[in-house]
Amino acid sequence: MSDDNVTAMKPARVLSDAIRDVKNATADRTDVVVDLREAHRMRLELLAAELEQVFADVPKDIDNFDFAISSGLQPRLWIDAVSHVALGRDRRTFRFVRDTRIGRVVLAETPDTKRVAAQVTRYIAERIVERQQMMDGGAELALPSFARDPVAEAEPPLRPIARPIWPSFLSGFGLLVAGAVAGIAVMAALYWLRLAATGVSF
What we know:
This protein is of the alpha+beta class.
């Protein structure tokens, strides 16, 4: 084999080695990502196990909650449609957050499983009480106020007080007459001054 052939084959071998190295590095990074995802999921499963009894005590007719761990690059334990628990960048700290109209609010941030479980439990209790209050308020608002208050129904509606119209008419007529008299007096005075200016004597 000539030297030219050997020289032409060397870049191909170098490229194949580079491709192999890139594949190995990619596989290593993938393994790291998979390991991190599995570690995150394992910690969230421990939290879900801590909350298992709380989830079971939620009334069956309330379907506002999810209680599911989502898959993906960053697994999350969903409590309802707007709140979830995930792990922070240190892979140890639980972050319990809720999405609101003004942005995301952190409800709890701690590496302690029991503390974040207590905060999630309180959040669930608050949502249940809030839902019950809304239902009770809606049932009360469904009835008109007079149906709940017999006294209000018995009272006659207020009517405007009728006032006589003659005093108003007379007062308006008096103002009109006074204005006419004043106008005539002014015109007479102007006429008198004009006649005096022309030298006419009376």
